[in-house]
């Protein structure tokens, strides 16, 4: 990623947890937040890669911390909260980015594997809820907490042959609104961000026709890059978005309009 936010101070003094941070959009969010002045706890199940990526950031002088965690295991989510309490004076933001996106363009609803359905829902939905639940007490302490849930525009246009992922991201949209109502009295904002199909490691297996569908259907007709999404995430984490909550922002070049 180009250092879009290098030298800027949008998140100076902020402490941010980002899940799914070893690669893809989560990694790019971590890079952008660090560039914007934040201290970042990077969380991912890919422990070796996560450690390597955090070490690279540290070598550049960025305050990045790595912690391996499986979001299907409540004890490991609790360990993330314990790390926050141990390392930081407070917590300002959480990006729930960790997700499974298997089977893009694969089987239809009639052939979908029930065990895979359960795994996707456990990580994408339950994991987002449990991580938020574990960290809300620390967000309350900051007096200005921010939660950004990463949804997907697949839930907005009803992507075929991707039912579990699409359904899980629809649940994220609904959960975001409910969380915003519950946490608003504590001055915690909760919003979702819905990227389109983005060129990252996790989408390398996506069939070429699905990529073409997106490119040809966008108002801005090109492939979507990770840095196309990061700026919106930083905005939602920042003081600029202090009065924005319960909203979903599609970032997809105009493939889906709100």
Keywords:
alpha/beta; Rossmann fold; seven-stranded parallel β-sheet; 8 helices; disordered N terminus
Question: What this model shows, in words?
Answer:
The protein has eight helices and seven strands; from the N terminus they run E-H-E-H-E-H-E-H-E-H-H-E-H-H-E. A seven-stranded parallel beta sheet has the order 3-2-1-4-5-6-7, with helices on both faces. The two termini are 28 Å apart. The longest helix has 29 residues, at 114-142. The protein has a single domain (15-251), classed as 3-Layer(aba) Sandwich (Rossmann fold). The protein has helices at residues 24-35, 47-59, 74-87, 114-142, 154-157, 163-183, 208-217, 227-237; strands at residues 15-19, 39-44, 64-68, 93-96, 146-150, 189-195, 248-251. 43% of the residues are buried. The chain has 258 residues and is an alpha/beta fold.
Explain the layout of strands and helices:
Blueprint: E1 15-19, H1 24-35, E2 39-44, H2 47-59, E3 64-68, H3 74-87, E4 93-96, H4 114-142, E5 146-150, H5 154-157, H6 163-183, E6 189-195, H7 208-217, H8 227-237, E7 248-251
What structural class is derived from the secondary structure elements? Answer: alpha/beta
- The H-and-E topology, N to C, reads as EHEHEHEHEHHEHHE
Biggest pleated-sheet summary: 7 strands, parallel
Which percent range fits the helix content?
A: 40-55%
CATH architecture: 3-Layer(aba) Sandwich
Number of domains: 1
Going by CATH, the homologous superfamily would be NAD(P)-binding Rossmann-like Domain
Number of strands: 7
């Amino acid at each position: 990623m180009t250092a879009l936010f290098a030298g800027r101070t949008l998140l100076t003094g902020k402490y941010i947890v980002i899940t799914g941070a070893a690669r893809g959009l989560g990694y790019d969010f971590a890079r952008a937040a660090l560039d914007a002045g934040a201290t970042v706890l990077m969380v991912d199940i890919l422990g070796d890669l996560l450690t390597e990526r955090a070490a690279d950031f540290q070598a550049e002088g960025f305050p990045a911390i790595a912690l391996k965690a499986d979001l299907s295991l409540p004890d490991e989510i609790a360990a993330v909260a314990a790390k926050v309490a141990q390392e930081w004076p407070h917590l300002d933001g959480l990006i729930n980015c960790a997700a499974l996106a298997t089977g893009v363009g694969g089987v239809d609803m009639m052939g979908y594997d029930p065990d895979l359905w359960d795994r996707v829902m456990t990580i994408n939905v339950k994991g987002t809820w449990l991580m938020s639940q574990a960290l809300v007490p620390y967000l309350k302490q900051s007096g200005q907490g921010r939660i950004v849930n990463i949804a997907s525009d697949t839930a907005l246009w009803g992507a075929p042959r991707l039912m579990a992922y699409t359904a899980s991201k629809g649940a994220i949209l609904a959960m975001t609104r409910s969380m915003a109502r519950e946490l608003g009295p504590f001055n915690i904002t909760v919003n979702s961000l819905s990227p389109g199909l983005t060129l990252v490691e996790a989408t390398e297996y996506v069939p070429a026709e699905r990529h073409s569908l997106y490119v040809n259907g966008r108002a801005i007709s090109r492939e979507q890059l990770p840095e196309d999404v990061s700026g919106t995430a930083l905005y939602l984490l920042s003081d600029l978005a202090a009065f924005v909550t319960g909203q979903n922002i599609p970032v997809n070049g105009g493939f889906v309009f709100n």
